[in-house]
Amino acid sequence: MALPEAALYWPAQRALLVADLHFEKASWYARFGQFLPPHDSEATLDVIEALVERTGAQAVLSLGDSFHDAHGAARLDPSARKRLFSLTERLDWTWITGNHDVGVADMPGGRRVAEAQVEGIWLRHEAEADDPRPEISGHFHPKLRLSLRGRHVSRRCFVGSATKLILPALGALTGGLDAGHGEIRRAVGAGAAALVPVADRLLRFPLS
Fold first, then answer.
1. CA 150, CA 78: separation in Å to the nearest integer?
2. Is the pLDDT assigned to residue 35 strictly greater than 70?
């Protein structure tokens, strides 16, 4: 079930799949003199907590780049750290390593793996274009950009093909790459489509 909040819920596994949380992105930029609202981690946690409550998820699989850099976990303020520990203690939480958080020394609870396989579906951070097996990943932060009646619209989206699904970034301060970008289309292969969940349906936009 693709959710409008940029997450995927798997009822049979009672699992919530999220990608590219980029916790502590604002504090990373602050180190270099670029000051952004310092509440990105709390805002991202708000979304995750609400989704867990609404879906009844018992497991969370975070598909990489959960922290913006190797020291992101250490920079969490006490409130955010407490909330995250609470989630990882009461849920079956798996951190899949991404390129941004590969050097994080101490993840706040849960278990950490390079990739995982659930019911024949491979879960990893970045899609492997040459792997024909069913796969769910993140990394690209896909967004669909359209021009409607003279207005430019940009929405986070999933990108899928017959065997691959790329999740949008859930993090509060994450940007996005156009869903039709060559790198995304190369990663998912032929038949790619942008998928936009709204309240009661899933909109499909072919990327041919």
1. 46
2. no
**Which domains are assigned to the chain?**
2-206 (3.60.21)
Percent of the chain as helix, strand, coil, to the nearest 5: 25, 30, 45
Strands 164-166 vs 135-137: parallel, antiparallel or unpaired: parallel
Residue environment code for 150-170, b if the CB has 16+ CB neighbours within 10 A, otherwise e: eeeeebbbbbbbebbbbbbbb
137 Cβ contact list (under 8 Å, min separation 6): 19, 63, 64, 123, 124, 125, 126, 127, 164, 165, 166, 167, 187
This prediction has a pTM of: 0.92
Through-space distance between the first and last CA atoms of the chain, rounded to whole angstroms: 24
What the block records as the tokens of 139 is: 């990394």
